[in-house]
Design a protein that fits this description.
This protein has helices at about 60-70, 90-105, and strands spanning about 10-15, 40-45, 50-55, 85-90. It is α+β, with helices and mostly antiparallel strands. It has a 4-stranded antiparallel beta sheet with strand order 1-4-2-3, with helices on both faces. The radius of gyration is 14 Å and the shape is globular. The mean pLDDT is about 90. It comes from Paenibacillus illinoisensis. Pfam families: GIY-YIG (PF01541). One of its GO terms (molecular function) is endonuclease activity. This is Nucleotide excision repair endonuclease.
């Protein structure tokens, strides 16, 4: 059996109730997420339930795209996101493995691709 250990998040940002600064759906700390490195990201709701897992070569633009894009699987659930966790993973194959593993072991609510459970 293969043992996979999910990396500890390098950055966690949380939605603010009444943000005073410029924000996207209550998040003001996107600057903490690297613009140039790759990794995986996880969206959680206020109850800590995993909503969505994704991967990217460049994390910040990809995460922001989920809050702006009209074709994102999260487009109808953006308000539900309360916490974003980011793990830096430079290797593309490792990102793919982690994403698939997390989707299926933690049963991400809004992921539709790579789902192997019913």
């Amino acid at each position: 059996m293969i043992q996979i250990t999910v990396p500890t998040p390098d950055v966690t940002i949380t939605k603010q109730e009444n943000p005073q600064l410029s924000h996207i759906y209550g998040f003001t700390d996107f600057h903490l997420i690297t613009r140039e490195k790759g990794g995986i990201f996880m969206f959680y709701n206020a109850n800590g339930e995993l909503l969505f897992v994704g991967k990217a070569r460049k994390l910040r633009p990809r995460i922001k795209k989920h809050f702006e894009d009209t074709v994102s699987p999260m487009k109808n659930h953006r308000e539900e996101v309360a916490t974003i966790e980011v793990c830096l993973v430079e290797d593309a194959v490792d990102r793919e493995i982690y994403e698939t593993y997390i989707i299926n072991t933690m049963r991400a609510k809004y992921n539709v691709d790579k789902v192997f459970y019913n």
